[in-house]
């Protein structure tokens, strides 16, 4: 059993908070509103993977505060919609686990509140906090992150990571394999997500970020930088080198890499198990194609605070003082082994060189935009990339896409 004494130093803080909390958290609470601290209840939604780790922190919290914590297990794919639907009715939880790219929709629906990490903020990877920030305000306690990176077969091209696209292609050609490099384009659909590291190396972000790291609605893909990326994409498509092809979907990509027909690919940690025949895998940051660092999308998981919680101070204490500890973050990692958002733990697990490679890529990366306007981007963006790869004139095709995205964003 996890030692609860590790949380003892936090008991006073939580007890003080608890003394000021009364009333029910939601319709499921047993509190009678009398101010009796033992009647306070927090309700937390989680999925099966994270349930055990949350229970550990909840048990310490209950022992030290006298409050009760009700943990409700739900399917992860149902969490966002159920949270948006139930919080306004008073039937939602005080806290829910969720992905950072839900944030725009949650803020727009008015169902989440800001949190204050205080000094704890320095314990987290900056990109994780950036992902959970909207309009300069932090809305969730992060705990994990993931991204894509360059994956290479060191038996074919050595273990040294290429710094640039050209260097990678030269090494890939020297390996004498069927292809020097393979990347998933989701077939004819296009895959801006996987291609984004190369796009950002030209200085062409989907949306511009402000000084706080929050995304604005200003489309950043236009102008000379976006045109340069489009020209590069066309030069490496079917009318050029052919290194990027819309005949490659996720499964074909993995098969070509696993069978040694391509020594390099761009993939996430979820794909590593698809390469049982590659005995010497090296993972590194994505090489630059446009001269600037490649900044792939980073996805972050964390815990949100309901805007309708009747025990917000108590819920804030649970998040910061009980889930915002190395012990709790370790338990979450053990339950769901993504890269930890807690920096010292991330460094520790990066003793595994594969994890270290994905962490280094994430530290170069940017959060995938969580603003609602991102929903207007994907289809137009993916389609334009697919058309350019298949031989469409790069600059006018790209510029039309940018114009269409700007119009869609303005509504």
From TrEMBL:
Signal sequence bounds: 1-19
Keyword vocabulary terms for this entry: Signal, Sugar transport, Transport
SUPFAM superfamilies in alphabetical order: Periplasmic binding protein-like II
Keyword Transport among record annotations: yes
Pfam family name, one: SBP_bac_8
UniProt xrefs under InterPro entries: Maltose/Cyclodextrin-bd, SBP
Protein name: Maltose ABC transporter substrate-binding protein
């Amino acid at each position: 059993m996890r030692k609860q004494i590790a949380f003892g130093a936090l008991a006073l803080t939580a007890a003080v908070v608890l003394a000021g909390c009364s009333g029910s958290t939601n319709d499921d609470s047993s509190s009678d509103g009398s101010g009796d601290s033992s009647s306070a209840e927090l309700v937390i939604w989680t999925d099966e993977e994270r349930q055990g780790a949350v229970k550990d922190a909840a048990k310490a919290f209950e022992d030290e505060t006298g409050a009760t914590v009700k943990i409700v297990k739900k399917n992860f794919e149902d969490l966002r919609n159920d949270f948006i639907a139930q919080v306004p009715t008073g039937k939602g939880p005080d806290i829910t686990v969720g992905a950072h790219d839900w944030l725009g929709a949650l803020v727009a629906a008015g169902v989440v509140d800001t949190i204050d990490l205080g000094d704890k903020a320095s314990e987290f990877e900056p990109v994780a906090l950036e992902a959970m920030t909207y309009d300069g305000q932090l809305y969730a306690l992060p705990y994990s992150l993931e991204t894509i990176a360059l994956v290479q077969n060191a038996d074919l091209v050595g273990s040294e990571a290429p710094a640039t696209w050209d260097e990678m292609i030269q090494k890939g050609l020297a390996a004498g394999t069927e292809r020097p490099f393979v990347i998933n384009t989701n077939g004819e659909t296009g895959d801006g997500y996987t291609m984004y590291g190369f796009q950002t190396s030209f200085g062409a972000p989907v949306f511009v970020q402000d000084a706080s790291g929050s995304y604005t609605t200003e489309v950043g893909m236009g102008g000379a930088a976006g045109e340069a990326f489009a020209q590069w994409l066309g030069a490496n498509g079917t009318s050029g080198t052919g290194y990027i092809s819309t005949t490659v979907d996720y499964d074909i990509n993995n098969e070509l890499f696993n069978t040694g027909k391509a020594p390099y690919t761009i993939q996430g940690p979820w794909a590593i198990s698809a390469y049982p025949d590659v005995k010497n895998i090296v993972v590194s940051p994505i090489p630059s194609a446009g001269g600037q660092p490649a900044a792939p999308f980073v996805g972050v998981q964390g815990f949100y605070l309901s805007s309708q919680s009747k025990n917000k101070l108590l819920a804030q204490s649970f998040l910061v003082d009980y889930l915002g500890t190395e012990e709790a973050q370790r338990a979450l990692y053990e339950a769901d082994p993504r890269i930890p958002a807690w920096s010292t733990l991330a460094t520790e697990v990066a003793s595994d060189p594969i994890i270290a490679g994905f962490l280094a890529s994430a530290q170069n990366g940017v959060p995938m935009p969580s603003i609602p306007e991102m929903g207007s981007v994907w289809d137009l963006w993916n389609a334009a990339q697919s058309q350019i790869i298949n031989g469409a004139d790069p600059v006018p095709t790209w510029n039309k896409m940018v114009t269409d995205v700007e119009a869609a964003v303005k509504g």
